[in-house]
Amino acid sequence: MWSVALFVLPGSPATARSDSPPRIVSLSPALSATLVALGLGDRVVGRTPWCRGLPARVPVVGDAQRIDYERLLRVRPTHVLRQSARPDPELQRLATEHGWRIERWARLERIAEIRSLLEHLPHILYGDPIPAAVARRRDALLRALDEALALHPCPEDPGPIALVTGADPPLAFGRGTYLDDLLRAWGLRNAVSARGWVALDLETLARSQARLVVWVNDRASSPPPALQTLPAPHLVAFVHPAALLPAASLPQVARALAETLGRIPACTGS
């Protein structure tokens, strides 16, 4: 069982009820997407340049690597959400001075970590009890995730599957990633045995014995020509706007991937 590594600094315990609605700065596209899915996009007052689904008026205040502290001060957050393995001493100093809460996720790569984020983020922001509308959205997202994990897109075993993105060099979704978790939940095999995001040259990918290569992207385009030279019996493109974002949109990504696999003869036995 995996869990989200969560750090809370400083402020009152996460279970304490706040009388004022949160003013959230999200320094992670995945966290922003989860806030939007929970119906909390209107509570976001600062974001990264890559956060989607938020109103254009929400100012950019930084990203995982760099924060514009002057802009951060101007938006007057109550919560600052980060996806980072390292603390930021200056951010912690400002949080202590201004009474902000810093929530930091060291990892957000596995399905169990996404589930834990959905379960705990409303309580982090609101304490107990959480607003009824937020609770309904959270519960619906958790049900959708369970339903997606129960799908069976391949009645027949297509053999090892390589999930690849990018082109120079291609990156494979190895063991311990959210798409690898999906394959295992569906009873399918990942052709890549290494853990995490794995840079593969085409020769190594060809030696992986993948019977199916799925090129994963978040925008409409064709697989790179180099991938089309692979000797795999099947090469298929899977495009979804949230395919590369481990967040609350995972159930929609899972259903779309299941539909893509379900159209491949190797998965259906036809």
Short description:
This protein is α/β, with parallel strands linked by helices and 270 residues long. The chain is 34% helix and 16% strand.
Describe this structure in words.
The protein is of the alpha/beta class. It folds into two domains: 6-149, Nitrogenase molybdenum iron protein domain (Rossmann fold, 3-Layer(aba) Sandwich), CATH 3.40.50; 161-268, Nitrogenase molybdenum iron protein domain (Rossmann fold, 3-Layer(aba) Sandwich), CATH 3.40.50.1980. It is 34% helix and 16% strand. The chain is built from nine helices and ten strands. The strands form two sheets. The protein has a five-stranded mixed sheet, with helices on both faces. A five-stranded mixed sheet has the order 8-7-6-9-10. Helix 4 runs antiparallel to helix 5 (132-149). The model is unreliable at 1-17 (pLDDT under 50).
Keywords:
about 270 residues, five-stranded mixed β-sheet, alpha/beta, Rossmann fold
What's the CATH superfamily of the largest domain, by name?
Nitrogenase molybdenum iron protein domain
The CATH architecture of the largest domain can be named as 3-Layer(aba) Sandwich
Specify the structural class.
Answer: alpha/beta
CATH topology of the largest domain, by name, is Rossmann fold
Mean pLDDT: 89
User: How are the strands ordered across the major sheet?
Assistant: 1-5-4-2-3
Poorly predicted sequence stretches spanning 5 or more consecutive residues: 1-17
Q: Give the helix level as a range of percent.
A: 25-40%
* Total number of domains: 2
> How far is it from the N-terminal to the C-terminal residue, by CA?
36 Å
Residue share in β-strands = 15-25%
CATH class of the largest domain: Alpha Beta
